[in-house]
Amino acid sequence: MHRNAVLTAAFCLLGLLGLGEEIKVLNPWLTAYDVEGRPIWELLAANVEGTTTGWVTKEVVVRFYDATGTITVEAKVAEIHTDPKGNRWETAAPLEGKGEDFHFGAQEARWQNGELQLKGLTFVSGKLNLQARVATWDQGGIWRLAGVEASFGDWEFEFPEGIYRQDQGVLEITKGLVARGWDWEVRAEGAVVDVAKNKVTLRGVEVVKA
């Protein structure tokens, strides 16, 4: 990207300062900071182009930081579109990413209001494999899942809502769990799946023959 384009992009994107985020563009890097100067996310792209509706970044690596400035999630995508200020961006192709002890993919992703919003999520951590219709991820490493089908070892799960805490490696199923395995069907009010300890704890259980 030409030097003039970099300067123009920087002037346009600095408008985020009044919204609690400041954007800088450096040799096609877009980095967002909170009001205390800590990095929130950055886009590293092979190419950044201005359009009439914002910016297009291609061959992109996205890095997300926690409150300590540590990278907790990194993802790759062929193309991302942003608004003129960079406050909101979305993928124009499937996304693949990873963190410590897990990897994931999504058909669509959008960053807005401090959350990464995902559609068609696939997520793998140890023996846990899940697919969620929609999900959100925030800077605290919390994944909020909806419309989930999953497997853990010999068991298959279905549930409408759940939370995965990536710092603990724990999946919390908050309601409506149906689990099938070993020729049994288990219905439960909720469950905790500890991936690291290979342990499942159920509450409010009803067991029937599958």
Summary of the model, kept short:
The protein has 210 residues and is mainly beta. The protein has 1 helix and 17 strands. It has a 17-stranded antiparallel beta sheet that branches.
Report what the structure shows.
The chain is mostly beta strands and 210 residues long. The chain is 5% helix and 66% strand. The chain has one helix and 17 strands. The chain has a 17-stranded antiparallel sheet that branches. Strand 10 and strand 11 form a beta hairpin. The N terminus is likely disordered.
Number of helices: 1
Tally the beta strands: 17
* Low-confidence sequence ranges: 1-20
Strand content range: over 45%
Largest sheet: 17 strands, antiparallel
Shape: elongated
What would the keywords be for this entry?
210 residues; mainly beta; 17-stranded antiparallel sheet; 1 helix; 5% helix; disordered N terminus
Topology, element by element:
Layout: H1 3-13, E1 22-25, E2 29-33, E3 39-50, E4 55-65, E5 71-82, E6 89-91, E7 95-99, E8 102-106, E9 108-112, E10 115-125, E11 128-138, E12 142-152, E13 155-165, E14 170-175, E15 177-181, E16 184-194, E17 199-209
